[in-house]
């Protein structure tokens, strides 16, 4: 029995022993999710006109976590590039905002996107260094890069040195207008990050990325440009982290080297992805919401709060190796953002 299926198309039709089959890439849950996606976006856009300012600030922060979790999951969950130093690009994005807005006079809201571009450009030469490190050394190397950048910024007086700097470029903006615009940009970034990852994974690039994660040698033997694919996903992830960093400190109004490049970012981001489910689009969203809620409820408990997060991560990884959403998806065959290709018999009735 010989069967040929073109998986590059959304639907492929063939025959096997006289029976018809189709390769599907959409589900009813996926269609419903896209409808909900559009409705919730419209609802979110209206919030500055009626919601309390504190809710806008909270949701802006959560939106930054969404972006960070999606970008780390794209890099580590789908690309297999486990980094513990992506805070380097959070810091680059934050300090790029200070330079572009305070020093260059660029509108701080417009500068957010440019901060992502700056982070991606800086990531390009950095990638050529860290990609030379095999396995676990890659993860340590990314952390070392973040620490080097932290020390460089801390010793640069023009950027405020170790005490940091304030975003004085926002002084001319009304507070309510500033918070509303920050919220709109944050929401756009969070929805955009999900759509970016979704469409990337449904493309040939996504197939190449997951193939490299599973086996670089096998991927290369099939004609996949491993080096180029890894370079692109690293730059894309850096862009997302740069935007998220700029947005986070746009809301905070102040930045310091420890806050921007601090190693504490990595465990929090990885916690979100692992708790939700590595290698899924839905998992990081679930994990980010869970982390955000827990942080707001228990942040006053200090080290006990961090201990509780660690214990929760241990419990989840033991009982739910694929994360909470990974378990739900497998148990109920529920895929809100379907990127897999599924073979089923065509209904000829």
Polypeptide structure, described:
The protein is mainly α. The protein has one domain (13-345): Orthogonal Bundle (ABC transporter involved in vitamin B12 uptake, BtuC). Helix content is 68%, strand content 5%. The strands form 2 sheets. A 3-stranded antiparallel sheet has the order 1-2-5, with no helix packed on it. It has a two-stranded antiparallel ribbon with strand order 3-4. Strand 1 (13-16) and strand 2 (19-24) form a beta hairpin. The longest helix is centred in the middle third of the chain and has 27 residues, at 175-201. The two termini are 25 Å apart.
Count of alpha and pi helical runs:
14
Runs with pLDDT <50, length 5+? Answer: 1-18
Number of strands: 5
* CATH class category: Mainly Alpha
Q: End-to-end distance, in Å? A: 25 Å
Radius of gyration: 21 Å
Provide the structure class.
Answer: mainly alpha
**CATH-scheme architecture:** Orthogonal Bundle
The CATH topology corresponds to: ABC transporter involved in vitamin B12 uptake, BtuC
